[in-house]
């Protein structure tokens, strides 16, 4: 009986994914190749700059603060632009240009080029990333039926994490046989492949009339701020990336410097994150469908609190991997639910605008995260429970803000229904 029920649930889940628009699957594939390529090299950039070039974690954080502020601006700009010019054109051009930029970054690393030149190239690369992410999410929201959005965004998360499962581990192995800078050339090839995939995606039919619509981001932000629920959701969007990016910035430096893990061990920790997503994202999507997206965003945030406390208590590879497993559980519940809620808040005619705003808020979190983590690392690296406890406190604030959003959104829906 139990086996029969499991088979029935698997069949129903497969049907839910199989009926998704082909473009949703295509974008998940593009995300996989794009993420895999970039994570081959970028997962170890903090180690290169801090441990090999002698930068302080604080200066590393400043560099990525500037880079991600550029990406934050690009998120809103690209979302607007894709409403007018089409999703495919914006994504493809951004990936092609970024491929050349990544190759240039590899050349600079090969010759241990000036830090200012590497920093400038990182800023350009991050800005170009901002021209892909909100547009890709807007396309998924365009073509996914409302009832299918949790599955659609869950599939995107699986694509991203498949890339993370392969990329950092592969990058760590490649760096043992070829110079680290040469790994960036492999990343550039992957971006070219992702651009080829994106170029095959047809734009949604409704975008043809978007050029006549006012898509000013200033007006969009003003409209969003009039709604308490949307304003709170943007704050949550900021907090989710502020805490999650610690996995890829502060954690790698901490694991190398404090826990004395090797590059291969750091890559394996990231692999735990990627493999966990691949194995458990579908069950997590089923859970979200049962409990609803409102409960899911709160539940996922609570898991981040537990994960950061576990990182602070970790003493080696095994305990750190266990903490990352808990963090990943929070990620696979929170991320698809967050994107689904965001799609529901946006204007169906202008999903680029909605995801541009959400992406801008998220990238502000990404921009601040390395600097915040770097400051904590520089001052509290020898007091890990305090250091990671502070980050757990930020995650607890995220729990409170999501709860406030849920209450405000219910009031907004009730008010709209009354009108």
Question: Could you describe the 3D structure shown?
Answer:
The chain is mainly alpha-helical and 419 residues long. It has a single domain (22-202, 215-418), classed as Growth Hormone, Chain: A (Up-down Bundle). It is built from 17 helices and no strands. It has helices at residues 2-18, 22-42, 45-52, 57-85, 87-110, 115-129, 133-143, 149-174, 180-198, 217-225, 228-244, 250-257, 263-291, 293-313, 317-345, 351-380, 384-418. Helix 8 (149-174) packs antiparallel against helix 15 (317-345). The longest helix is centred in the C-terminal third of the chain and has 35 residues, at 384-418. It is globular and about 60 Å long. The model is unreliable at 209-215 (pLDDT under 50).
């Amino acid at each position: 009986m139990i086996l029969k029920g499991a088979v029935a649930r698997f069949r129903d889940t497969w049907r839910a994914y199989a009926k998704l628009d082909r473009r949703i699957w295509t974008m998940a594939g593009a995300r996989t190749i794009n993420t895999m390529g970039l994570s081959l090299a970028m997962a170890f950039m903090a180690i290169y700059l801090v441990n090999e070039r002698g930068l302080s974690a604080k200066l590393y954080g400043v560099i990525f603060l500037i880079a991600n502020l550029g990406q934050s601006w690009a998120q809103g700009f690209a979302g607007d632009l894709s409403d007018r010019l089409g999703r495919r054109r914006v994504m493809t051009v951004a990936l092609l240009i970024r491929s050349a930029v990544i190759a240039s970054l590899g050349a600079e690393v090969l010759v241990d080029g000036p830090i200012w030149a590497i920093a400038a190239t990182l800023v350009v690369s991050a800005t170009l990333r901002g021209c892909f992410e909100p547009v890709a999410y807007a396309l998924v929201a365009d073509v996914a039926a409302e009832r299918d959005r949790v599955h659609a965004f869950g599939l995107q998360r699986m694509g991203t994490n498949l890339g993370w499962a392969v990329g950092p581990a592969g990058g760590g192995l490649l760096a043992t046989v070829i110079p680290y800078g040469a790994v960036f050339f492999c990343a550039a090839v992957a971006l070219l492949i992702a651009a080829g995939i994106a170029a095959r995606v047809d734009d949604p039919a409704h975008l043809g009339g978007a050029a006549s619509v006012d898509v000013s981001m200033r007006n969009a932000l003003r409209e969003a701020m009039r709604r308490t629920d949307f304003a709170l959701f943007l704050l949550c969007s900021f907090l989710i990336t502020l805490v999650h990016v610690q996995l890829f910035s502060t954690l790698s430096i901490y694991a190398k410097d404090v826990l004395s893990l090797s590059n291969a061990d750091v890559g394996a920790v990231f692999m735990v994150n990627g493999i966990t997503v691949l194995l458990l994202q579908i069950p997590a999507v089923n859970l979200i469908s049962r409990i609803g997206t409102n409960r899911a965003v709160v539940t996922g945030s609570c898991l981040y609190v537990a994960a950061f406390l576990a990182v602070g208590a970790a003493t080696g590879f095994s305990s750190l991997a266990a903490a990352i497993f808990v963090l990943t559980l929070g990620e696979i519940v929170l991320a698809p639910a967050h994107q689904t809620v965001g799609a529901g808040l946006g204007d169906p005619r202008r999903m680029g605008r909605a995801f541009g705003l959400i992406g801008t808020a998220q990238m502000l979190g990404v921009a601040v995260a390395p600097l915040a983590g770097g400051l904590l690392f520089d001052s509290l690296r020898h007091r890990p429970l305090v250091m990671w406890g502070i980050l757990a406190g930020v995650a607890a604030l995220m729990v409170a803000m999501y709860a406030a959003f849920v209450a405000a959104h219910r009031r907004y829906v009730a008010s709209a229904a009354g009108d």
